[in-house]
Amino acid sequence: MKKRLKSLYLIIASVFISLAHLPFALAKTVSTKRMPEEAPVAALDDSLSFTNSFQSVYDSLHLGMMGLSRKAYEYAQKGFEKLMRQHKISNTSVIAIADFSQPSSNNRLYIFDIKNYKLLFNTLVAHGRNSGKEIASVFSNKPSSLKSSPGFYITGDTYFGSNGYSLKLLGMEKGINDNALKRAIVLHGADYVDPSYIDEQGYIGRSLGCPAVPKEQADDIINTIKEGTCFFVYAPNSQYISHSALLQ
Question: In the prediction, which pLDDT does 6 show?
Fold first, then answer.
């Protein structure tokens, strides 16, 4: 009789212990199944949100009415997103676009904050003296060419040189603008980037190949885009567009 009672007690205890642990086992199973499903959805939502934000900035800030080519903007977005995926861009909020489809008499440099929908600068910017007069139409990646180079750059460090406070530009496109450092292509201020030149000759002064900006705005522009910002020089040049890996 005692043996039977002891066996029955062991069976009941075993069942009770199993039932007591059942909720923990189920909770663990549910947790491990849900986690992998949530992570990719969050990443996808972030990516879509950024793309939608970039696309809506053009219309929200009326950049077309301010002269910025929609094609230039679309190309800028394509290259920007590729450079982001390559982890080349540190400042993911701001982008600068120099729209060289416009004459130099226009305020063709646009710097805006994508995430906060703000136009930070819209001003004059020079092209190289051998690239053309009113409009830049001829480009080169060669040293001493005195021509502009189109394409995508990432801003580097600042320094004080012969043109004062200046910003290094790192060319991201092989064979198109990757000689920028060797050519000393930098962003700097210049007296000849001034409306008075437009009144005299119809276009502003030209550089040795650098995207020079008005002297009184240079420091603020450089401090806004230094160290890891995307700077895109757009040119409606079929040779550039067909050879750019970032635009394909």
Answer: 46
